[in-house]
Amino acid sequence: MGNSTGAWVVFFLSISSIFVSTSGQALPTCHGVEVLYTLIGNALQIYPNETLPENQVYRFEANITLTNKGYSTLDTWGVGLTFQHREVLVSASGLYPDDGRTLPANVSQGVILIPSSSQVLRNSIETAGDPGKIQRSYSIVGDEFGVPLNPMPRALNLTSTGYNCSTAQLIGVTTLHTCCVEPNSTITLTSDDTPLPPIAGDILVTYDVRQAYASNYRALVTISNESPYGRIDNWNLQWNWTEGEFIYTMQGARPKVADTQVCVAGEAGTNYPPSATMDINSAISCSTSPVIADVPLEKQNDTLVGNVKHCCRNGTILPAVIDPSKSKSAFTMNVFKLPPYAGDSMHLVPPSNFRIGDGVYTCGAPRLIAPSLFFSDSSLDYSENALKTWQVSCNKSTGATKPPPKCCVSFSSYLNDSIIPCPTCACGCAAKPQPTCSTTTPAMLLPYSALTDRPANRTDKAVVWANMNHFPVPNPLPCLDNCGVSIHWHIVSDYSKGWSARMSLFGWSNDTHPDWFAVVEMPKAMPGFEKAYTFNATQILASPSNTSFVVQGTPGYNNYLLGVTSPSVKTGVSMLQSIVSFAKGSTPGIDIKGKDGFPSKIWFNGDECAMPDTWPTSEALRMASPSTVLAAFLILIWTLSFGPLELL
Question: What distance in Å separates the CA atoms of residue 601 and residue 352, rounded to the nearest whole number?
Fold first, then answer.
């Protein structure tokens, strides 16, 4: 009886500690997920020593604690922190920035931290209040400037979909508190091994354990392109092992670095010395963070390097709308475990901190989902499950880490003599561009003769064209678009029963784009789409509103957009083009002279291109700048009041 009473006392004290801050103050009531940011100790002054107090650097340590005080289990989450003292995050145990940045990182503009491995927050009802299952705590270390006492964040929140967080409240001087109310009060009852529902993403990485032994297991890793139009080139998948695992063999892919010395001299060599049955010198990777790359297509049937379904695509994964058979890439590997886990065949832990696409994509933590089902390739009606399956969802990075576009679009029409060019700095600009130019001034209209000129050679023609047509000439002039690929859309004709446009692709860089594709979105015109004459163009019926068509080159004819250094390119620009025709019967009232004849969005090889913010028209004033419109209006008022102006 005494032992039972003691256990309950410990249990009660554990639960009670959840409701009291480190300062001793009671925390506000929370029916949801409670998030605490608690400063540990005093900020510590570190080098360099500065004379100005606001520039002095201090080290700080803090704990982030999440407690599920609601009804529902929380399986996917991130903690948002808004800092205010020029903070630099140096380490975060078990957490990492959701935008894929490595630590140390400048987080002065805020950061969202997500768990490196799946960290499910169960609810108290299904766990009988077990603190080890309803609560998670993490330590972070960083630097801040100018605040020797209690440097706290400005805001704190939970980023899980549907949760509504209260304004962060300071408890004492070292604890920041917020309560995030769940979207509903439905009680969820799960266990530690309950599979989570699959989630969506631009890229899904599936980690299937197919076979397990005491010291090692066989895994199948599948990369699926789930983006509607995205294309993945040179996928380069990376992760961190959490328990010292190493890869002994691999088929369908290869590590980018063969680290035999690490295998022989490290823990792998100590625990698996060379023997008659296993030679550690043959291990393919012992890196704690291997970078895995695809192998060439010709290795597809190689029994040692390839021979895996969906393998060997040379790093390219197309969207399913282009070719469903090329929308996945896969490889298998034999993974060895280290003590104390080497003797347990069912101790299976996935890698953490997945990365893919060299910073273009941000990946979440692996989620345990229902085991994958594999059907037999034979005629037998037979299938088998994976022993365990984890899923990683990766999405294109957003915010400050989002890469700039790689392509841009320009417009013109037979109705107007000017080309509306790609936007200024469409694909990015240097912070201090040389020669000096404006990164914010709109691009200047161009004459048709400048269309095939390299962007750097268009400036003089743009200035002459502006002077000829009395357009304003800004000072400084706008910067270039800096895009390696541009797409020009020109309205060629407009008749009572149909109309046509010319779509031209220009390559301005040294990069060659094999098997290119483009997706053109035209909400008003799409019902009348007929065909492209020298491109292969088909309507995308799978899109939500059927407003887009996909364009590809004809194999052996124009399916390569060559780099400008290619011997086949004689004019300094690589160009492909085709007429695209539309009928008007199914689009009554379409305004070709307005914006209906121009795409609203274009993607090239999966990257969304920068679009102009206006379109050409036969009415000159609609293309003119606001200052030109104002001048014309004032002249009109003068003429109506006093008669026509006389030239001096």
Answer: 36
CA distance 565 to 573: 9
Q: Give a yes or no: residue 415 inside a domain.
A: yes
Full domain range(s) for residue 644: 624-648
What CA–CA distance (Å, rounded) separates 124 from 68? 7
Is the pTM higher than 0.90? The answer reads no
CA distance 530 to 103: 52
**pLDDT digit string, tens, across residues 181-209:** 988 777 777 766 778 888 899 999 999 99
| Residue 227 and residue 112 in contact, taking contact as beta carbons nearer than 8 Å | no
CA distance 88 to 57: 10
- Phi/psi at 140 (nearest 5 deg)? -125, 150
Encoded amino acid at 69, one letter? K
Q: Is residue 198 part of a domain?
A: no
The reply to whether 467 falls in a domain is: yes
Please, are residues 57 and 143 in contact by the beta-carbon 8 Å criterion?
yes
Q: Say if CB 338 and CB 189 are below 8 A apart.
A: no
| Distance separating alpha carbons of residues 569 and 174, to the nearest angstrom | 65
- In a domain? residue 190: no
DSSP state of 454: -
% of the chain residues with pLDDT over 90 = 73
